[in-house]
Amino acid sequence: MSHEIQNQYTPDYVSPPGETLQEILEEREMSQTELAERTGRPKKTINEIINAKAAITPETALQLERVLGIPATFWNNRERQYQEALARKEEEERLRLEVTWLDDIPVKAMIKYGWIQYYQDKVEQLREVLNFFAVASPEQWNGIWHSSHVYFRKSQAFESDFGDVAAWLRRGEIEAAKIPCATYDANKFREVLQHIRTLSVELPEIFQPEVVRLCAEVGVAVVFVPQLPKTRTCGATHWLNPDKALIQISLRYKTNDHLWFAFFHEAGHILLHGKRDFFLEGKDVASVEDRDKEQEANKFAEDILVPPAEFKRFLASGKQRSKAGILEFAAQISIAPGIVVGRLQHDGVLQKSHCNDLKQRFEWAFDE
């Protein structure tokens, strides 16, 4: 019997459950007074339920089950769904006043990259963006990213690009959460980096998944996230928890020398600096106390990619200005020749316009 009644009374979740109760009473020719007497509830309570002035409590739901033969779960669900509908309606009205916040977020680019779905309705689009950031409202977003986020407590140099940077960093966190990692082990990470440097001679479809796999085995999540229009950062490093670090690479400069230098620069931060530090590369944002850390990370990347002793011998050989010499040296130290070119250009040995054809250029591939 109860199953038949549940099918008969398919609830309209926007209407109050009291309307359903009133319909049942009319069908059974039962007055509110009689229902009150049979349930033991005050007549005033029954009237307030029917007029949506009072909620159906679990206790009342059990009493209605006894009197009307309709399961308490039906009434409890009806009340829960109604209250949820009321909350959603109130939220809709509140969010409608906050849609202008979307102007500060790179929504079009996020849709293009497939990070979020497109909605024509502004409120629905706002909900989608809030879901992406895992916050309930723009107010909570401001509280987390402006007030609580460790990097933005240190510097406001990215203030004009705040939404783009926050979205890019958040995407990195989302991607990193999908990567199961072992507990971080610094010694094993150092060993892994020596192997990873040799992957620079491989194509992206080979080195990218291999870098992710190898680093995950030693507690470091590596994610490659395309930069947003105003991000202008080539990488970021921070700790997701005491046992899991994150390296995020943007491919800002699109050549292999920059990509690999950025990766090893961030790796240097992980190995050399504290777990409370947050590093976002791309602008001269470091405070005086942090500039030493940036220089240390630079030196780490330079030395692991092109070992100092070998580089000194190479410069002494006089072959550093010929493509043949660069190719020979790169093969000897097992790295891509474009990385050697980048180092020579950085040190002023080669002009910026020389030997760039030895560099590999990368482009992001997006699903249609």
UniProtKB/TrEMBL annotation:
<keyword id="KW-0238">DNA-binding</keyword>
<dbReference type="Pfam" id="PF06114">
    <property type="entry name" value="Peptidase_M78"/>
</dbReference>
<comment type="similarity">
    <text>Belongs to the short-chain fatty acyl-CoA assimilation regulator (ScfR) family.</text>
</comment>
<feature type="domain" description="HTH cro/C1-type">
    <location>
        <begin position="21"/>
        <end position="75"/>
    </location>
</feature>
<dbReference type="InterPro" id="IPR010982">
    <property type="entry name" value="Lambda_DNA-bd_dom_sf"/>
</dbReference>
<dbReference type="InterPro" id="IPR010359">
    <property type="entry name" value="IrrE_HExxH"/>
</dbReference>
<dbReference type="InterPro" id="IPR001387">
    <property type="entry name" value="Cro/C1-type_HTH"/>
</dbReference>
<dbReference type="Pfam" id="PF01381">
    <property type="entry name" value="HTH_3"/>
</dbReference>
<dbReference type="InterPro" id="IPR013430">
    <property type="entry name" value="Toxin_antidote_HigA"/>
</dbReference>
<protein>
    <submittedName>
        <fullName>HigA family addiction module antitoxin</fullName>
    </submittedName>
</protein>
